[in-house]
């Protein structure tokens, strides 16, 4: 092999190493600066709806998602001075349902947390008002 | 750096799945080369590596999920003093599809690795192949494609895609590690056979991957920028593999030159590793 050919091989090998290093760096950077919205399941609709103004307090809250959710890791909490976990949560397929005790008039917020079958975790807050 | 901590199980999940993919691939590679009568390597060493990788991967994924579920309403990035309870571990393992699938995956992995090493047990090839096949089903069931159940075409497309891709990866890993560590089990004839087989497997994986991507796009009508970014890295890794593999095929048609072959092979292995990492990352990202 001539000296020129050897130099050419060395040069292309260095270039390939540079490309490899750049690819690895790019992947690492993407990991660090990733978008914070990391979830697969999403809430399609709720009852009461987000921001609803209700004449009567709702008897239950129903959340419907785009994928089935895991019953064992479905939670809901109601804010009354502090967050309080709601019990008797029923999950069937893509729907989560929880009965509510009569709520006093005013603004209310509920937060929910679910896990989809692929293990991804999603949370959200539902706000509504019960009119006096 | 804050964005990295927003979704605490992103990297756990990606690295864990990458390890589980490689464990499955190793077993498939072992069986593949075994069927080509290449056995001048230690089955025990390979299968122990596969078991360790698989268990490590599964534990990382499950721990990532539990870490999030321990404090589901915590501000992202700050898990506070929440700790994982035994009850939560039991719930995850025994009351969720995710837990069932990972436990079955570990059982099949351990069984397959054990059977590969028991020389006096002559099992039919279809039975040995059914074990990594079952592991593939478990991996697909814990992915986005498995969310809608096993009766969907997208699930089976995912299984086919992973099956082709991991058989290619396994064959490459076993051959490359053996060669690059100074082994002489793989003759020039073996490499020529591999070249033909790899072309078929990789083309199949590429085709099913494109169909899978189309299905992903059709599901929401859009793709998130982060998802596209990682997809581009995956595409670059695929391009790197194609270039390296084309070089290797050219070398195989000429005179035997092991040194040049191994140099190009190391480039292909690097690109394959990038491909696995990018794929594992995609499983953790929302596509919309």
Order of helices and strands of chain B: HHHHHHHHHH
The proportion of strand residues of chain A reads 35-45%
What is the radius of gyration of chain A?
26 Å
Strand content of chain B: under 5%
Q: Return the average pLDDT of chain A rounded to an integer.
A: 80
Number of helices of chain B: 10
* Fraction of residues in H or I helices of chain B: over 70%
SS field, number of helical segments of chain A = 1
Poorly predicted tracts of residues of chain B: 1-5
Would you kindly provide a written description of the structure presented here, covering whatever features stand out?
- The complex is a heterodimer of chains A (132) and B (288).
- Helices cover 23% and strands 39% of the residues of chain A.
- A five-stranded mixed β-sheet of chain A has the order 2-9-8-4-5, with no helix packed on it. In chain A, strands 1-3-7-6 form a four-stranded antiparallel β-sheet, with no helix packed on it.
- In chain A, strand 4 (75-80) and strand 5 form a beta hairpin.
- Chain A starts with a helix and ends with a strand.
- With 132 residues, chain A is an alpha+beta fold.
- In chain B, 78% of the residues lie in helices and 0% in strands.
- Chain B is built from ten helices and no strands.
- Chain B has helices spanning 2-6, 9-35, 43-70, 86-95, 97-117, 125-141, 153-180, 188-220, 225-253, 258-284.
- In chain B, helix 9 runs antiparallel to helix 10 (258-284).
- The radius of gyration of chain B is 20 Å and the shape is globular.
- Residues 1-5 of chain B have low confidence and may be disordered.
- Classes of the chains: A alpha+beta (132), B mainly alpha (288).
- Chains A and B meet through helix 1 and strand 8 of A and helix 1, helix 2, helix 3, helix 4 and helix 9 of B.
């Amino acid at each position: 092999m001539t000296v020129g050919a050897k130099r050419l091989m060395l040069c292309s090998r260095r270039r390939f190493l540079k490309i490899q290093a750049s690819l690895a760096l790019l992947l690492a950077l993407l990991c660090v600066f990733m978008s914070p919205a990391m979830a697969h399941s999403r809430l399609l609709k709720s009852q009461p709806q987000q921001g609803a103004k209700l004449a009567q307090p709702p008897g239950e809250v129903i959340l419907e998602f785009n994928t089935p959710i895991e019953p064992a890791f479905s939670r809901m909490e109601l804010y009354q001075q502090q967050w309080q976990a709601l019990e008797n949560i029923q999950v069937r397929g893509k729907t989560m349902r929880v009965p509510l005790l009569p709520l006093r008039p005013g603004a209310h917020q509920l937060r929910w947390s679910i896990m989809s079958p692929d293990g991804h975790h999603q949370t959200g807050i539902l706000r509504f008002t019960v009119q006096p | 750096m804050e964005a990295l901590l927003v979704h605490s199980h992103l990297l756990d999940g990606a690295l864990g799945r990458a390890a589980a993919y490689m464990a499955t691939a190793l077993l498939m590679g072992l069986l593949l080369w075994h069927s080509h009568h290449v056995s001048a390597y230690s089955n025990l060493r390979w299968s122990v590596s596969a078991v360790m990788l698989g268990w490590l991967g599964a534990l990382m994924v499950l721990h990532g999920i539990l870490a999030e579920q321990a404090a589901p309403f915590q501000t992202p990035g700050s898990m506070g003093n929440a700790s994982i309870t035994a009850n939560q571990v039991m719930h995850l393992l025994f009351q969720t599809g995710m837990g069932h699938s990972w436990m079955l995956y570990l059982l099949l992995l351990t069984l397959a690795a054990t059977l590969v090493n028991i020389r006096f047990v002559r099992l039919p090839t279809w039975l040995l192949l059914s074990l990594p096949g079952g592991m593939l089903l478990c991996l697909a069931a814990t992915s986005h494609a498995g969310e809608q159940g096993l009766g969907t075409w997208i699930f089976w497309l995912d299984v086919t895609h992973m099956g082709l891709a991991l058989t290619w990866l396994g064959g490459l890993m076993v051959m490359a590690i053996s060669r690059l560590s100074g082994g002489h089990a793989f003759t020039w004839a073996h490499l020529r056979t591999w070249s033909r087989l790899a072309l078929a497997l990789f083309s199949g994986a590429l085709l099913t991957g494109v169909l899978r991507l189309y299905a992903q796009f059709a599901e929401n009508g859009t793709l998130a920028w982060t998802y596209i970014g990682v997809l581009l890295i995956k595409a670059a890794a695929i391009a790197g593999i194609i270039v390296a593999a084309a070089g290797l095929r050219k070398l195989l048609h000429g005179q035997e030159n092991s040194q040049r072959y191994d140099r190009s092979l190391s480039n292909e292995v690097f690109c394959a590793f990038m491909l696995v990492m990018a794929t594992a990352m995609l499983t953790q990202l929302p596509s919309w």
